[in-house]
Predict the structure of Biotin/lipoate--protein ligase family protein.
Amino acid sequence: MHTALDLPPPYTPIALREAGDAFAHACAVAAAQGAGTLVWVRRFDLVECAVVFEPEEVLATARQVLFAGMNAAADALAAIAPPEKPLVLDWPDAIRFDSGLIGGGRLGWPTDCAEGVRPDWLVFGLMLRAALTREPQPGAVPPAALIDEGFEDFEVPDFIASFARHLMVALDEWASVGPQSQPARWRQRGRWRDGDLALALRAPSWLDPATGEPIA
């Protein structure tokens, strides 16, 4: 397994040990470390990373960066996925491959920031199940994992670097076309439902709070 990230500017990587929490750490250091900070966890069985942004828009608009992160993750997966199996985004934050839940994205922002105020920072976190480390219970259907789904020679650091590059493309599109470009692209792969995005993001739909990993 590779142990380093090959990232272009403006990213600044922070690597955590296996027991680390990339999303929580990124939220904790966002104000001090600033935009481009990318926190990741050194694990072979789980893609876990988080990126810090310093948005120019008010929170209600800037929150749509979730869709930029989801699009980047989907693009990075599509580049190496078996072509015969579908990759689908579920409203607003889950990622499914061949109908199996593999993980998703989440968004953090300052808790005291009002909807009409520009937040000092945002954090997009990504978590995907890369490999199974525990045998399922007898008779149970094993959860979806990338390596078992045909993502051959999958390396977590390589994927995170690919995701980071695709995220730069998504943000360039945001800057040139506008924030609405990202939910529009999400809809091309996603099952959209109208709803309160801020409320939906308070608790990630794909995350098992007991394990801190994607729901099995």
Summary: The chain has one domain: 12-193. The chain is about 30% helix and 25% strand. Helices lie at 22-33, 59-62, 65-78, 156-177, 181-189, 197-200.
